[in-house]
Design brief:
single chain; alpha/beta; 14 helices
């Protein structure tokens, strides 16, 4: 059975086909605000967010705000995030909110309602979640996402040095934990050959051969792959095929500093995105 045309996976693939595979991270950390000559205040966040969105809209497949950089300013910072998500939605720009939520039962359901329920103040098109309380803990978020044409990206192989302690560990049947997560994502979000699922994976572009060696490529062949680690963290176009092999076409190239360091001039930001998009297309 085919997924509905408004499913997140279908909309994401259309955006990649039209605008390329760059996902623009909007990460207003203190050093970047200073480099843009903006105050480290909610007012600075708002100016930063407006400039970044205006510069990348129509040039990237999605934006990816990092919630923590807004939350650290309290209620006023969260209000700026609400405004950013609403502005992206009004302009038809997909948003992947990087919140890495992970909990069980009613608490996870509440997180899901905060970000995936249509009309919620912090509504996004997709969120990142942590499945390391057990893959089933993501159920409330996945259920709500699929019900409303939203997406979820499960952390699978992250680029931090301690990640392999858990992600490479062997679960039942000597299956790597990360492969179990990939299989879970495939079961929930796909099942239709040739289409993209609405449940994707977060796989760092700096994990070397782990994505293929641990069998994630075979376990989740239709999952979109949100891939941090490009640009400032060391990965480049060569890692598209080196790390992801035959599934390189599913990679979303997540770039933050590589784009935002060109600011605050909007024209320079747009030019940087266009240059990077050509490199990774």
């Amino acid at each position: 059975m085919s997924r509905p045309a408004d499913a997140f996976g279908a909309r994401l693939r259309e955006a990649v086909d039209a605008q390329g595979r760059i996902v623009a991270g909007i990460d207003p950390h203190a050093a970047l605000l200073q480099a843009w000559s903006l105050p480290d205040t909610p007012r600075g966040l708002a100016a930063f967010s407006r400039t970044a969105l205006n510069a990348v809209a129509g040039e990237v497949c999605a934006i990816k705000p990092q919630s923590a950089f807004f939350e650290r300013h309290g209620a006023a910072g969260v209000a700026v995030l609400e405004e950013l998500l609403a502005a992206a939605r009004s302009r038809g720009v997909l948003s992947i909110l990087d919140v890495k939520r992970g909990d069980i039962g009613s608490t996870m359901a509440a997180y899901a309602e905060a970000h995936l329920r249509p009309g919620a103040p912090l509504e996004a098109d997709a969120v990142t979640v942590s499945p390391y309380l057990g893959a089933g803990s993501t159920g409330p978020a996945v259920q709500l996402a699929l019900e409303h044409g939203k997406g979820v990206f499960l952390l699978a192989l992250t680029s931090n040095p301690d990640g392999p302690q858990v992600q490479h560990a062997l679960a039942r049947g000597d299956t790597p934990v990360a492969r179990e997560i990939a299989r879970h994502a495939e079961d929930l979000g796909s099942g239709v050959p040739g289409e993209w699922g609405s449940v994707g994976l977060v796989v760092g572009a700096t994990v070397g051969d782990a994505y293929r060696r641990l069998g994630l490529d075979r376990a989740a062949p239709s999952a979109p792959l949100l891939a941090p680690g490009f640009g400032a963290q060391g990965a480049g176009p060569a890692q598209m095929s080196e790390v992801f092999g035959d599934n390189a076409g599913h990679v979303l190239v997540s770039l933050s500093r590589g784009i935002l360091s060109a600011g605050p001039d909007p024209a320079a930001l747009t030019a940087r995105v266009q240059q990077l998009s050509a490199q990774y297309r």
